[in-house]
Write a structure and sequence with these properties.
507 residues, alpha+beta, Outer membrane efflux proteins (OEP), 13 helices, 63% helix
Length: 507
């Protein structure tokens, strides 16, 4: 390139410097997190709540260990490597991270290469007659060999690319939070179903013991009837009561089988591949560290996902508004062109071009205005979704705090009722053997005692479920600061996806 060529390029270089200076600005609103009133410093239902020990069980994310059940710990560990809903969320997250890189690629110029060889004629019929008269060759056939490299770069003067990258990053963070929410949900479902299964085992044990007790009562009634002390109706009533208890025991097995199948699905197995033998309930309902309301916005992955979608929608407004401004594209190309193959890459065949292109849409029928209005409306919708998610989060925490507080009181009262019902059964049985009361009194006392036993187990199941749901409602020890390092999250996701594939291949 000669000095004269450089002199001619000075206006172009000046335009390039000016565009780079303007590239520091970005149109559209800068993101500000929507404000939410978290209310008082403590939850409404959290007053006089006893603190949980040790607190780090929730802080490190392994909240299920608070129940102290090794079998539960083993089942939850299988969620990360076998749950298919979690695998879907992992794939969605990796796809979102790939979109971030796709957006960032707009910062770089595009470079393309082309090479071609052609053979053709440039003559015409009219020219052939005239050239024939002059003795020259008409419609001569020519060869053409070309090779070129072309580079193009659109200067991000108005921040369209930056806003697009900002939107993609926020979307990827939202997807990472969705993944965390899916993991927490699966863990909570496993814990809740497992604890329910153990309560069902306790109910089965109770019903089997009840059947044995009713068989003894039937034998007593038959002996009394054989001795002529009672009527045949007492035996029939005892038989009816026994069969009803046996039917309840069988029906309990249906529920247990369905819960066991649900756990199998959560750990990524078919029901035929999974079985949990009957075992006593070893877990206890622990107090869960509740924290303060303001921390909830940082500990709930679904809240973080909703907030990140607000940030993404906010950036999209800038992308839409950037369309109102002209775009500047800088392009350069260079290569070789020759009519003979031997001279293809020689200096005389060198060709090049360099120059800017400024483009501005003058009339589009309102398309840009509509796109901007749509982006603003989408942003408003994500803000509403975020605020509703926050309100729902507070409701879930308060619901389960209230449930645990009230169920603890109910369990104490129900325990007293159960003790009284057991004493009543003993007294009435003795009275019936002595012939001082009818068998109706025995049936009533036994039915009351069974109902009290089942109610106690039902309360225990509800307390366990409320403990699980409270841990989930509080975020399970998750922290939104984990979203800052997308690279680390991507690596972890890829490793878990690989483990999932290997686990599937082994089956």
């Amino acid at each position: 390139m000669t000095q004269q060529d450089l002199f001619k390029l000075k206006p172009l270089l000046a335009m390039l410097v000016a565009s780079l200076a303007l590239a520091a600005c970005s149109v559209g609103p800068d993101y500000v997190r929507p404000q939410m009133d978290t209310g008082p410093a403590i939850f409404k239902e959290g007053q006089n709540w006893k603190p949980a020990q040790p607190r780090d069980l929730v802080a490190d994310g392994k909240w299920w260990e608070m129940f102290g059940d090794p079998q539960l710990n083993a089942l939850v560990a299988q969620v990360d490597i076998s749950n298919q809903n979690l695998a879907l969320a992992e794939a969605n997250f990796r796809s979102a991270v790939a979109l971030v890189q796709s957006s960032r690629s707009a910062y770089s110029p595009t470079l393309s290469a082309s090479a071609g060889a052609s053979r053709g004629s440039s003559g015409s019929a009219g020219a052939s007659s005239s050239n024939a008269a002059s003795g020259s060759s008409a419609g001569s056939v020519r060869n053409s060999y070309t090779f070129s490299l072309t580079a193009a770069w659109e200067a991000d003067i108005w921040g369209k690319v930056r806003r697009d990258v900002e939107s993609s990053q926020a979307s990827a963070q939202a997807s990472a939070a969705d993944l965390a929410a899916a993991r927490l949900s699966a863990q909570a479902q496993v814990a809740q179903n497992y604890l329910q299964l153990r309560v069902l085992d306790a109910q089965q044990q109770l019903l089997e013991e009840t059947v044995q007790a009713y068989e003894r009562s039937l034998q007593v009634a038959q002996n009394q009837y054989a001795a002529g002390m009672v009527a045949k109706s007492d035996v029939i009533q005892a038989q009816t009561q026994l069969k009803s208890a046996q039917a309840s025991a069988l029906d309990n097995g249906v529920t247990r089988a369905q819960v066991e199948h649900a756990i199998a699905l959560l750990v990524g197995k078919t029901p035929a591949q999974f079985a949990l033998p009957r075992a006593p309930l070893a877990a206890v309902a622990p107090p869960v560290p509740q924290g303060v309301p303001s921390m909830l916005l940082e500990r709930r992955p679904d809240v973080a996902a909703a907030e990140r979608r607000v940030a993404s929608a906010n950036a999209k407004i800038g992308v839409a508004k950037a369309a109102y401004f002209p775009s500047l594209t800088l392009s350069a190309s260079g290569g070789y062109q020759s009519s003979t193959f031997a001279d293809w890459f020689t200096l005389p065949g060198r060709v090049w071009s360099l120059g800017p292109q400024l483009a501005q849409t003058i009339f589009d029928g309102g398309a840009r205005a509509a796109a901007t209005d749509q982006a603003i409306a989408t942003y408003d919708g994500t803000v509403a979704t975020y605020k509703q998610t926050v309100l729902t989060a507070f409701q879930e925490v308060e619901d389960n705090l209230a449930a645990l507080r009230i169920l603890e009181q109910e369990a104490a009262v129900q325990g007293e009722a159960l003790q009284a019902a057991r004493q009543a059964v003993t007294l009435v049985n003795n009275q019936y053997k002595a012939g001082t009361v009818s068998y109706v009194n025995v049936i009533t006392a036994q039915a009351t005692a069974l109902s009290a036993e089942l109610s106690s187990l039902n309360i225990l199941n509800r307390r366990m479920a409320a403990s699980v749901l409270l841990a989930k409602a509080l975020g399970g020890g998750w922290d939104e600061r984990s979203l800052d390092d997308l690279g680390s999250l991507q690596q972890q996701s890829a490793e878990k996806a690989k483990a999932l594939k290997e686990n599937a291949a082994l089956r």
